[in-house]
Design a protein that fits this description.
The chain is α/β, with parallel strands linked by helices. The chain has one domain: Alpha-Beta Barrel (TIM Barrel), CATH 3.20.20. It has helices at residues 4-19, 41-49, 59-67, 86-92, 112-127, 151-170, 185-196, 209-215, 220-230, 259-268, 291-306; strands spanning 36-39, 72-74, 99-104, 133-138, 174-177, 203-208, 234-239, 242-243, 246-247, 274-277. It has an 8-stranded parallel beta sheet with strand order 2-1-10-7-6-5-4-3. It has a two-stranded antiparallel ribbon with strand order 8-9.
Length: 307
Amino acid sequence: MINRRKLLCSIAGIVAAALLPRRPSNATDPHPPLHIATNTYPWSTFARRNGKTLRLHTDSLLGDIASTGIAGYEPIINQPAEFDGLSQRLARHGLEMRSLYVNSVLHNEAKSSASIDQVLAIAARARDLGTTIVVTNPSPIRWGGSEDKSDQQLQHQAKSLDRLGESLKKLGITLAYHNHDSELRQGAREFHHMLTATDPDHVKFCLDAHWIYRGCGNSQVALFDAVEHYADRIVELHLRQSRDGVWTESFTLDGDIDYERLFGMLRRRGIQAHLVLEQAVEADSPSTVEAVTAHQISNVNLKKLLS
């Protein structure tokens, strides 16, 4: 006979397990630990706040990331040569690189082919390190500018994005489209066209909830409408929180974005997305902790949300 305490503990365990993202069907470990990664962008913002420049892929940075309990490294890669020695450094610190972020220029007919070739060269090296997702945000006409792409440029960009995704798929790698806030201007025509005019088999979606929220005037309505439209293409999440529109130092549950609702929407659809913390700081963010502590807190809070 099972007593009442054992029964309640058993039920609690079943409920907690049901709330976690669904495991992939090919997983060999019946109970693999929750994998959380961090992009290098937030680390650069903390370094810049201290008047420093972040050196990517170094033992120092990888050691700091490992010390937070985060198990994944999502770097921003610009050249294939950046992979030299990276495999050994990742192994030394017990980190995986399941995804990476690359910039691309896809709206410009004179530059798009060379940009695609560059991304493919990076992906070919990354595949040897276990990378399965390449995230790209097609570059704006001018970084920091307010110039919008023409319809012709958007049409060329979508075709180039689809071509890149098809080529990456042949390498066994998934392309995930990512946006910032500028793509939400002018009725979000760039954002929607990239996910309307591309083949869902070639181009998936890296949902950065906060950029959609901010790009639409701090609107959760716009965010969750976007999730309703494109949830089935989501393969990765970039996770950032704010309070009153300002980025917090750590990922927190009591902020502007209802992440409990977001994860619930994905869970009901059976979607297991790669989880990447991108909790950066900006000019008006609080300044109470350093990068390592902030990421330790983010890691704990995200796991708390998912358990």
